[in-house]
Amino acid sequence: MPRITPLLRSCCLVLAALGFAPLSHAAVLDDAQGLWAAGKRDQAIKMAEDALKTTPEDPRLRFALGTMLLEQQQLERARVLFTGLTEDFPDLADPYNNLAVIHAARGEYEAARQDLMRALDLQPDHAQAQENLGDVLMRLAQQAYERALKQALGDDTALKLKLQRVVAFNNAKGAQAR
Q: pLDDT tens, 53-95?
């Protein structure tokens, strides 16, 4: 049996754990995830999209499709789905976390920080949101140091050293993720 990507599997488990009962399209969702795991990404997305035409309010299907689109770098389409989920199900942390990922990918770190803070308000032990917040805060710190460095007067050696540490940390973290 093909493996479902960890991100996709965790997304569906979270929604199931939050009390979303099995829906009539659960089999379609399973089939779409199977196609995804088998590398048939376009077919999986089409299957999820087609199923959503008949049940547009299905949160598990919407979330799974958004995650697929996010993994395919279709950021705007994924953003629309996750934004809709935050509007329709404002007590779910995961759509906020995924919106933050999209904002961060676009360099919109303050918007990402706000989404992550909302996710953590809803679910303080959300490990992925906590890790993502750390990454976003590092990027915001890097931007602040870079702005300060441009405006520094006099001896800016200490500031340069701090900036170098932030950049080195971000580079090392990026290398670990690969």
A: 998 989 999 999 999 999 999 999 999 999 999 999 999 999 9
CB 85 within 8 A of CB 62: yes
Regarding pTM above 0.90, the answer is no
Q: Structural domain boundaries of the chain?
A: 1-89
- Domain 1-89 falls in which CATH fold? 1.25.40
Contacts of 175 (CB under 8 A, 6+ apart): none
Q: Which residues of 88-112 are buried (b: 16+ CB within 10 A; e: fewer)?
A: ebeebbbbbbbbbbbbbeeeebebb
